[in-house]
């Protein structure tokens, strides 16, 4: 079977999604999970873009073993210098450098002639090779390039020492049959192409990123790039979980295997969603909450008779186990720990006690605690012990458009109460918290969704705060009371930075 390398760019292209900025700790947590998932190459960031991203790449390079760590650069020496510096401690460092190759990118963005672009290609790859053996070259907007010119650029990159050549559909313009044809054309016409790996990197502007990536793989690409949950610039990237499961589910037809452990897919998806604050749509392929649910009678009847009637993937394959235990306020630590283990969480000792305490609080308000509740609970439990604690809150609404909130917070042992009036209960709540904590950030986004169904469902609130230094902090909170969930999310975001707004560890 042919081996496909899986290149994850959740921490680079995924982070280019509007509204996401990840700090070092958040990137590290995702990187650890990507290693468990079996990713071959982690693109950890763009070191030249900010000191924070430099630090993230350097930290991941230092700490992650058994996986290649990659940084992105322009075909610019200063970018490559910084990238090489950030990757210095990596076990397997890779520099990913490149330049736009389509007529519009060359003429309108770079203001370079095609020959100048070829020169910059060769120079950048040669320069990167001074620092690392493994250099990947990206031909940005390669799908919209003149194919003959693309051949010329790729030959220059290979001659200069590139080990991987990436042919992105940067703007998601390709159809699968066209993209596959382009990869075949490259394979047939680029000199020494057999000495390097061809990589595919597709965007989802027309909803075809997965199909295009698969077409490129069938045509001979040895590496696929993408992100978890398909997050990324504009309409996003190829969803790696979709490509992986397409190849896995139809492995006899594809004849391709990857080093991915499918059982880690669900946990990875949840982690990325929790940390980035980008929800996974319920109907999303593979990782959506409904992906394995059967709603209508004819389907339910079929599945009860034989799962294969309507199921092409067993949920357990991607780490969503079948549920046999019903959890309620009468359940003990063993049952909770067992279920959490089945869901991929290893909790014991004091951590189990703390989670059990939150579980009982929830179970007292709900008849049954479902898996989605537990996922939310584990996200909430991860808020960290040094957070600002909500001791008490009360809301009074007077008339249609004003509300008064009174809040009592425990700031590391210092208990303070204050109140605020605003044009709605959530605004009043956040204003009362602001009065106590002195928040230097601006509320950029607030969303509330229900975790499970029914009137007892948990409210899952996400808050995004923009700090004066431009950084964005995401906070999550859950509760059966939606106002309490909102307050918890706001406090969770605040607890990630100090009271004065300094970056927390
Ligand atoms: C398709 C992709 O996803 S590419 C990756 C996108 N990622 C990012 O942009 C990361 C975040 N970006 C940044 O932090 C900043 O844009 C930086 C640090 C990279 C550059 O910042 P600045 O130096 O202020 O330049 P700015 O972003 O305004 O403009 C980009 C410049 O790079 C040039 N450029 C763009 N791509 C490339 C490239 N691959 N190689 C060489 N030059 C390039 C542009 O032509 C422009 O040059 P000009 O200033 O001579 O007109
Ligand atoms: C930088 C490259 C790989 C990219 O993200 C794109 O072209 O979409």
TrEMBL record:
This is 2-isopropylmalate synthase. It catalyses: 3-methyl-2-oxobutanoate + acetyl-CoA + H2O = (2S)-2-isopropylmalate + CoA + H(+). Belongs to the alpha-IPM synthase/homocitrate synthase family. LeuA type 1 subfamily. Residues 4-266 form the Pyruvate carboxyltransferase domain. Mn(2+) binds at residues 13, 201, 203, 237. It comes from Acididesulfobacillus acetoxydans. Coiled coil: none annotated. Its cofactor is Mn(2+).
């Amino acid at each position: 079977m042919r081996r496909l390398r899986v290149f994850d760019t959740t921490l680079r292209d995924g982070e280019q999604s509007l509204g996401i900025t990840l700090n070092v700790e958040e990137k590290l947590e995702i990187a650890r999970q990507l290693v468990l998932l079996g990713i071959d190459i982690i693109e950890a960031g763009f070191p030249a873009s900010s000191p924070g991203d430099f630090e993230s790449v350097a930290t991941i390079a230092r700490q992650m073993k058994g996986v290649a760590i990659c940084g992105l650069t322009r075909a610019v020496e200063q970018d490559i210098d910084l990238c090489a510096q950030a990757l210095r401690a990596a076990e397997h460092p890779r520099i990913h450098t490149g330049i736009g190759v389509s007529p519009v990118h060359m003429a309108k963005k770079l203001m370079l002639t095609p020959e100048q672009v070829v020169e910059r290609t060769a120079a950048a790859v040669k320069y990167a090779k001074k620092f690392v053996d493994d250099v990947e070259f990206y031909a940005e907007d390669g799908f919209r390039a003149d194919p003959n010119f693309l051949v010329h650029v790729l030959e220059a990159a290979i001659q200069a020492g590139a080990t991987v050549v990436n042919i992105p559909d940067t703007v998601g313009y390709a159809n699968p049959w066209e993209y596959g044809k382009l990869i075949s054309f490259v394979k047939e016409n680029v000199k020494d192409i057999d000495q390097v790996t061809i990589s595919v990197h597709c965007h989802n502007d027309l909803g075809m990123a997965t199909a295009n990536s698969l077409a490129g793989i069938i045509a001979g690409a040895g590496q696929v790039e993408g992100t978890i949950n398909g997050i990324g610039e504009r309409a996003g990237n190829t969803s790696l979980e979709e490509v992986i499961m397409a190849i896995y589910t139809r492995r006899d037809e594809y004849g391709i295997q990857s080093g991915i452990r499918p059982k880690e897919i669900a946990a990875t998806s949840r982690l990325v969603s929790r940390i980035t604050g980008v929800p996974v749509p319920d109907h999303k392929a593979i990782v959506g909450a409904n992906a394995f649910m059967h709603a209508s009678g004819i389907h339910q009847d079929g599945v009860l008779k034989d799962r294969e009637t309507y199921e092409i993937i067993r949920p357990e394959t991607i780490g969503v186990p079948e549920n046999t235990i019903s959890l309620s306020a009468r359940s003990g630590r063993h049952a909770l720990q067992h279920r959490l283990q089945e869901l991929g969480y290893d909790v014991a000792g004091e951590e189990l006690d703390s989670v059990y305490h939150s579980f009982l609080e929830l179970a007292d308000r709900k008849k049954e605690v479902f898996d989605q509740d537990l996922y939310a609970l584990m996200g909430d439990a991860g808020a960290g012990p040094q957070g600002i604690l909500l001791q008490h809150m009360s809301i009074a609404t007077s008339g249609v458009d004003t509300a008064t909130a009174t809040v009592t917070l425990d700031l590391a042992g210092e208990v303070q109460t204050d109140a605020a009036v605003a044009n709605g209960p959530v605004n009043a709540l956040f204003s009362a918290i602001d009065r106590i904590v002195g928040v230097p950030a601006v509320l950029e986004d607030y969303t509330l969704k229900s975790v499970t169904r029914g009137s007892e469902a948990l409210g899952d609130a996400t808050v995004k705060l923009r700090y004066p230094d431009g950084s964005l902090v995401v906070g999550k909170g859950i509760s059966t009371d939606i106002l309490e969930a909102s307050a918890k999310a706001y406090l969770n975001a605040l607890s990630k930075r100090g009271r004065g707004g300094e970056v927390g560890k």
